[in-house]
Amino acid sequence: MFIYNIKVSGSMLFKIFFVIVTIIILTVFSICCYNLFVAAKNNVNVADNSSAVIEIDPKNYTNILKDSHEHIDNYVGKSYKFSGYIYRAYDFTDEQFVLARDMVISSDYQTLIVGFLSEYKDIKNYADDTWVEVTGTIKKVDYHGDMPELQITSLKEIDKPNDEYVYPPDESYVPTV
């Protein structure tokens, strides 16, 4: 039987503990930096690629709507694809409408109409409340102040979706444009 006698002093134990903790911290820091730079590189590629069509779904609809009004210049020239229904206001031209959704604002499903100001040359051929799916590019216009407007490049009529409602923007949204 072999017996080993290892003498460890308090200062030696502290040195070993310090080295292990330092290695762990450096490893975690390196992983975080790597992930940060990879994510930043991926976001830059998506943002610089203005030919990519970004799909908007009911979950991020109001977040993107809010951010596009607050930071119009970040959205100008970008292409989007999403659906909504046709809503017209009295002061719109024959080619203007709102690609609208109903935003739930209370627990008893009271709603408010929200949406993107849009322009399409043949929109007069579609009735109000018709559900459509569109693809278009954002440009900055003056409609009661600076506002993003969707210049529609393609439009097709669709059935009313099951997820027709949207919900108020949440504070956790981080724009990626």
How would you describe this protein?
The protein is of the alpha/beta class. It has 2 domains: 49 residues; 114 residues, Nucleic acid-binding proteins (OB fold (Dihydrolipoamide Acetyltransferase, E2P)). It is built from 3 helices and 7 strands; from the N terminus they run αβααββββββ. The protein has a 5-stranded mixed barrel with strand order 2-3-4-6-5. A hairpin with an 8-residue loop joins β2 and β3. The longest helix is centred in the N-terminal third of the chain and has 39 residues. It is elongated. The relative contact order is 0.16. About 4% of the residues have low confidence.
Based on CA atoms alone, the radius of gyration comes out at: 26 Å
Low-confidence parts: 43-49
Q: What is the CATH superfamily classification of the largest domain?
A: Nucleic acid-binding proteins
Number of helices: 3
Query: How many strands, what sense, and barrel or not for the largest sheet?
Result: 5 strands, mixed, barrel
How many strands in all? Answer: 7
Question: What is the correct CATH architecture of the largest domain?
Answer: Beta Barrel
Report the portion of residues in β strands: 25-35%
How are the strands ordered across the major sheet? 2-3-4-6-5
Instruction: Indicate the percent of residues in helices.
Output: 25-40%
- Tally the structural domains: 2
Whole-number mean pLDDT: 84
Structural class: alpha/beta
Straight-line distance between termini: 69 Å
N-to-C series of helices and strands: HEHHEEEEEE
**Overall spatial form:** elongated
What's the CATH C level of the largest domain? Mainly Beta
CATH topology of the largest domain: OB fold (Dihydrolipoamide Acetyltransferase, E2P)
